[in-house]
Amino acid sequence: MEAAGESLRDTELRLGLPGTDAPEKPASTVTRGGKRALPEDDEEGYAKSNKSSSEEEEEQGEGDLCGHEPPAAKAQVVGWPPIRSYRKNSLHARKVEGEAAGLYVKVSMDGAPYLRKIDLKGYKGYKELREALDDMFKCFSLGEFPRKEGCSGSEYAITYEDKDGDLMLVGDVPWEMFISSCRRLRIMKGSEARGLGSRH
Amino acid sequence: MVRGFGWAAAFPDEVWEHVFSFLAADADRNAVALVCRAWHRIERRSRRRVFVGNCYAVAPAAAVRRFPEVRAAAIKGKPHFADFNLVPTDWGGGAEAWVEAMAEGWPHLEELRLKRMVVSDDCLELIARSFKNFGVLSLVSCDGFSTAGLAAIAANCRNLRELDLHENEVEDNCLNWISHFPESFTSLVSLNIACLEGDVNTSVLECLISRCPNLKTLRLNHAMPLEKLVSLLQRAPQLVDVGTSKFSADHHPELFSKLESTFAGFKHLKSLSGIWEAGPTYLPAIYSVCESLTSLNLCYATIQSPELLKFVSRCKNLQRLWVMDLIEDNGLIAVAASCKLLQELRVFPSDPYGVAPPISLTEHGLVAISAGCLMLHSVLYFCRQMTNAALLTIANNRPNLTCFRLCIIEPHTPDYISQEPLDAGFSAIVESCKDLRRLSLSGLLTDRVFKSIGASANRLEMLSVAFAGDSDAGLHYILSGCKNLRKLEIRDCPFGDKALLDNASKLETMRSLWMSSCSVTLGACRQLALKMPRLNVEVIDERRGRPLESWPDDFPVEKLYIYRTVAGPRSDTPPCVWTV
């Protein structure tokens, strides 16, 4: 690994056979961001600087370009793309902040003077969630707390803001999908909620 | 016409001083200083501003001695590639030597601007104590100091007008540093603390803002909650430049209308930045300022395309736009239609390592901008695909480009339609844009593009090259052409000894050359250093511990930094740096 000559050739990054100009890349309309592993023989000197990369080694050329999962951790080129380390750290910090927040979401109720926070991971499904909310906010509700969505005659409906910022009625999608897209909960007055597609 | 330079004595020195005061450019003042001894003497005594592009190019004491009446100094330290972690953290660029010399020789210094330097708290304290009339401190991309150092500045600089902290790594060990501004302190005009991580005491800040009537620029940091931001901004409706903090919060109608009325109160707002993590909830509250904005920096704002589009297309007077690629092609097409006065565009990657689904930002966005924005002269663009045809169109649309930095994220990416290298496209850029001063290349490139650059880029001052070229010829074209080249930075290119040695004298006409992961050997460096005594040839290698002398000539140099200097080899090289 310490041999001078081959390390020089190794650091010369070329995709094609020596002597050719065009790379051997599969032609694609949009170049995916998925990085192929580039030969780098001195990871230990540089690995410390790449804070936002996943740290595992990766088989060469195995980058998953088509799958739904994010590609396996790539051996990244140091200092490329040329983004200020300040920016990299900032964006990374914000991302980590977001992830560490986990599934704690705020719950507001129209008319209530303060909000609550709940951990969606702590509930197995919608039924448990509703029960918990009922419990939390019962001192504020003026009438029967709805047990299913869109109950006619109910005072309140439980809605949520998803990651696109849209206001959705709780209960339409599978629980797992719900907890991954729910950003916050809002208990609305039934009169406002009617537009959200009550089934009754 | 009087022969000789007797005419210089025809007027008293003060007259010439007054004449020289109209020369703004350093190059002009330098030229004046070469005319005769009298002018040299007069000019050096009257020079008020000094710019040192490389802190090691001249000894601090020498600079201070030559220009004894300097009031404003700007100094740069580390090579540009330090921004991308290519330069070891202990490489150098320490500010002590300069600050000590300035404290000694320039007691009347009023302005100090440092970029990419290591600034310690001791330095800040020395600055705070040494310059009675100190007014402007600007630290850009620096590190080595903490908020304790800032406290010293706050406490001692009675006439401070500007404190500009831009993208520094600052250790937060003094939470209440802002409270060190005395009650009697009212001179603040500009405060930029956007890079500070920690909380800032809002009530103290509020008091500060209230008693500084001349405050024009206020850029806050991420940590401040939106409600506090709003009450702060309400105290300063005269602001021209605002950097907000976090722009997301739960939807509260009262907060929304407060934000709305606060921003509606800004009658003079021209520049807006910050807006970290903006959701769709609060952005509409500030639509009222869009029309008056000339500068908009959303490069940390993770706002999605629809909201971005709505916001930016209202900014009809925008001259500068920095934004994330979340704006997508559609957003840029809208910008091209609405922002006819746009001069500078920067598009940053939201996901540079490509783990999320790709954003729909392609060459089309940039082409649209180049067609719609006739005053566009400066571009920084991160994208994932490009074609020669697009670059040709851009070149034809915008021959007035002065700065063109294109970063195609994947190295060696060819024209995605023709699979050709992007030589033709970049050649078109340099041939069409005769005033191009700065160029960054990317994508698949052969030696051909360097031939065009060498031949056509006559005004080019800074060139950045990565993963490009086939052979030494590429580097040779650049160094033998590009008459005005000042800074050249190269990484991962097959450029080697011959081009470097054949063009040794060119290097003395440039500020600096950086080469990393190229094909340069130690032997060539030794030859170069022998041949060119006024260059410092620094070989940087973090891996080996043995001293330089023991390595053979054919040893490959991992990183090389060459710069001209009149100060000789520096004395503060760390273990990983050898001056050959």
Shape of chain B: globular
- Total strands of chain A: the figure is 5
Shape of chain A: elongated
- Largest sheet properties of chain A: 5 strands, mixed
Distance between the termini of chain A: 71 Å
Main interface: chain pair and counts: A-B, 56 and 64 residues
Helix percent band of chain A: 25-40%
**Gyration radius from CA atoms of chain A, angstroms:** 26 Å
**What are the segments of chain A in which pLDDT stays under 50 over at least 5 consecutive residues?**
1-7, 20-73, 142-153
Q: In which range does the helix fraction of chain B lie?
A: 25-40%
Report on the structure:
The complex is a heterodimer of chains A (200) and B (580). Chain A is of the alpha+beta class. Chain A has helices at residues 4-11, 43-46, 85-100, 126-137, 175-181, 190-193, and strands at residues 104-109, 116-119, 156-162, 167-169, 182-189. In chain A, a hairpin with a 4-residue loop joins strand 3 (156-162) and strand 4 (167-169). Chain A is elongated, with a radius of gyration of 26 Å. The relative contact order of chain A is 0.10. Chain B has 580 residues and is of the alpha/beta class. Chain B contains 20 helices and 23 strands. Classes of the chains: A alpha+beta (200), B alpha/beta (580). At the A-B interface, helix 1 and helix 3 of A face loops of B.
Q: How would the blueprint of this fold be written?
A:
The complex is a heterodimer of chains A (200) and B (580).
Chain A: H1 4-11, H2 43-46, H3 85-100, E1 104-109, E2 116-119, H4 126-137, E3 156-162, E4 167-169, H5 175-181, E5 182-189, H6 190-193
Parallel strand pairs in A: 1-5
Antiparallel strand pairs in A: 1-2, 3-4, 3-5
Chain B: H1 13-20, H2 26-33, H3 37-46, E1 49-52, H4 60-66, E2 72-76, H5 96-105, E3 111-115, H6 121-130, E4 136-140, E5 143-146, H7 147-156, E6 162-166, E7 169-171, E8 190-192, H8 202-210, E9 217-219, H9 226-233, E10 241-243, H10 253-264, E11 271-273, E12 295-297, H11 305-312, E13 320-324, H12 328-338, E14 344-348, H13 363-372, E15 378-383, H14 388-397, E16 403-408, H15 423-432, E17 438-440, H16 447-456, E18 462-466, H17 472-480, E19 487-491, H18 497-502, H19 504-507, E20 512-516, H20 522-531, E21 535-540, E22 559-564, E23 577-579
Parallel strand pairs in B: 1-2, 2-3, 3-4, 4-6, 5-7, 6-8, 8-9, 9-10, 10-11, 11-12, 12-13, 13-14, 14-15, 15-16, 16-17, 17-18, 18-19, 19-20
Antiparallel strand pairs in B: 20-22, 21-22, 21-23
